Amino acid sequence: MHKPTKIAFLGSGRIARALIQGLLKTESVAPNEIIVTSHSGVSAKRLAEEFGVTSATSNDQAIEATSIIILCTKPAQALATITASQKSLTNKLLVSMATGIRSEDLFQAAAGKARILRAMPNTAVRVGKGTIVLSPHTSTTPEDFLLVKTIFSKSATLEEVSEEKMDAVTALSGSGPAFALLFLEGLMEAGIKASLDPKLSRQLAAHTLEAAAALVLETSATPESLRHEISSPQGTTAAGLQVLDQADLNAIVGKAVQAAIQRATQLGR
After folding, report:
1. 180-207: per-residue pLDDT in tens?
2. 3-class DSSP state for residue 35?
3. How far apart are alpha carbons 3 and 32 in whole angstroms?
4. Which residue ranges form the domains of the chain, and what is each CATH number?
5. Is 97 in contact with 70 (CB distance < 8 Å)?
């Protein structure tokens, strides 16, 4: 499957920037293959200057010059953006990164003229370590799905779910890195308070979470069994885990994920 000659990004915010940065870092596409737009044009020009990509003066101009469009606008702007460009979207593949916005609503906004694929990335795509979860609409063809996988396979791990699970994916995979970073920040600050050099504490905290993730991803063991393997009775790990258990950390994390799911659902309305 050959990738398209050009890709349009409608919206130049944080997620567009992360996706573009990841694509260029992994050399999945060249800078001259990317066209970006933004509501005011300011952020698109900024991205163009930073990464050497092209900024367009209008969404229609970007869409007409490309065969695949990545929708990265804010959720509240997504449907209006698509409706305004219905004619330009004929026979185009639209990959929506807009949180909560259902693919059927996007399909109707495009007057049934575009093929729709929903996706949820996380910002680690900018360093080639992210995850993008895909949910194809009935209009998506197998060739479309393969094309998107080809484009993003170097900058992200790709997964597929049915659309009704996308709000949960958004909360866990999209918002989850921020939750993990809060825990990392807590580890780092605790190390500093315990007299470690701030730079060393930052490195140790980051590698600690990286190590935990690697154990889960590279073995068949469950997080619970790995935790027990690390924790010796009456040892240092057991003492720390007791504090986290008393605080009911799992319940707190669960509440955070549920709050994110509810917000994703609200945005979709």
Report:
1. 999 999 999 999 999 999 999 999 999 9
2. strand
3. 14
4. 7-166 (3.40.50.720), 176-268 (1.10.3730.10)
5. yes
